[in-house]
Design goal:
This protein is of the alpha/beta class and 398 residues long. It is 29% helix and 21% strand. A hairpin with a 5-residue loop joins strand 10 and strand 11. 45% of the residues are buried.
């Protein structure tokens, strides 16, 4: 292990945090090349996984890392610049005057408390999704950020994808006509567990499996696609219904191993969100259906299926009178070629630029809070087997 300076003075659990971006008064003009120094709070699979990207970005420097699990902290420090300071207490990291901003990549349940502390410490925030647990907490975070001088970016990285932005612009330019529905899925075939070196660490490492810490598949996976649909429609769902359960992995988990949600929007558009852990067919997909065509999106590629290319002659197909012969779904989509970076790397570049240029992020506290509230309403619908409704006071447009 390389030499590093360690500050290990507390056993307090590192929490995840959130914040929202608004006009920042933070001045980086006196710093060489207007560089940004960041501290990473939570160095697990996501926080630690972003370190190589940050190392590749000019004028973006990791100066501190924090985690309560020593082996994860050690791994993060090994991947970071040589003068990176290690902490096992995020509050001590926030006291470090060399830290301009923090990346919060801790469990969902901890985001709120860390975000509040980071706002009070005057640190700019990149908070991983889902932003905050609890509707009132999301509303409060928005208020706190608006009263502060910090930039807050939410980790819905596809909001930064130049391909996804291009797709949204295509939709706004009416290239697939009037939008009628969305079909979103994120399917996997596996138990979603991570190796545990000691049984006592089960809940800390596999926190996504436990309601105390996690919103499960909805918060960790579906939230990205919920954010996208809200973005395309420039709206929030008016009502949410759904079903799910622990039906395949009987291993002591508390969060569902499958979820199926239907969102209804004020203009009548419906959006379906599905996440499975027992079948990976199709993996990650978003289908946007319009009356002139459809767009299919995955992680990094997109295709358009124009309706006008389909024969309008109707005849009996499989005994169904009036069905269109050879529907477009049997054809091949036209690739949408648009140059773009990995969405996670692009989001980090954008965060650096947003802080340096004092500008509101694309994925900000307002969009992040709206998505998080939709996630909270979805969990309520799933766990209580009820329809939930959007309330006017949830709206937080700046």
């Amino acid at each position: 292990m390389k030499r590093r300076k360690f500050i290990l003075n507390s056993s307090k659990i590192t929490a995840g945090s959130i914040s929202l971006p608004f006009i920042s008064g933070f001045d980086l003009s006196s710093k060489p090349n207007s560089s940004l120094n960041i501290g990473i709070i939570g160095t697990g699979s996501r926080g630690g996984g972003l370190i190589p990207f940050i190392n590749q970005i000019q004028n973006f420097n990791i100066v501190a890392c924090c985690d309560i699990l020593p082996f994860r902290l050690k791994d993060a420090i090994e991947k970071s610049p040589s003068k990176t300071v290690a902490y096992n207490n995020y509050e001590d990291l926030l006291k470090n005057k060399d830290v301009d901003a923090v990346l919060i990549a801790t469990p969902f349940s901890t985001h709120y408390s860390i975000a509040i502390d980071a706002i009070e410490a005057g640190k700019h925030i990149y908070c991983e999704k889902t932003m905050v647990h609890g509707i009132s907490n999301n509303i409060n975070i928005v208020k706190k950020v608006k009263q502060s001088n910090i930039i807050f970016q939410t980790g819905h990285q596809y909001h930064s994808s130049r391909l996804y932005n291009h797709i949204v612009n295509m939709i706004k330019l009416n290239e697939i006509g009037k939008i009628t529905s969305f079909e979103c899925q994120w399917n996997r075939n596996g138990d979603w567990r991570r190796p545990v070196p000691d049984p006592s660490l089960e809940r800390l490492i596999n926190w996504r499996m436990y309601k105390e810490y996690s919103g499960g598949l909805v918060a960790e996976l579906c939230s990205h696609q919920i954010d996208f649909v809200n973005w395309v429609l420039n709206d929030n769902p008016s009502k949410i219904m759904g079903s799910g359960g622990i039906d395949y992995w009987k291993d002591g988990r508390e969060t569902f191993d499958n979820v199926h949600l239907i969102f209804e929007y004020s203009n009548g558009v419906k959006a379906k969100f599905t996440a499975l852990t027992s079948n990976a067919l199709g993996d990650y997909q978003i289908k946007i259906h319009g009356d002139k065509g459809s767009i299919l999106l995955n992680y990094a590629d997109a295709w358009i299926y124009p309706e006008e290319n389909v024969s309008k002659s109707h005849k009996n197909v499989d005994g169904v009178s009036g069905a269109t012969a050879k529907p477009w779904i049997q054809g091949i989509g036209i690739p949408i070629n648009y140059k773009h970076l990995d969405p996670s790397k692009q989001a980090l570049i954008d965060f650096r630029d947003n802080v340096i240029n004092n500008q509101l992020p694309l994925s900000n506290v307002f969009s992040g809070a709206s998505t998080a509230i939709a996630v909270n309403l979805s969990l309520e619908a799933l766990h209580n087997k009820k329809i939930t409704y959007w309330r006017n006071y949830y709206n937080m447009i700046p």
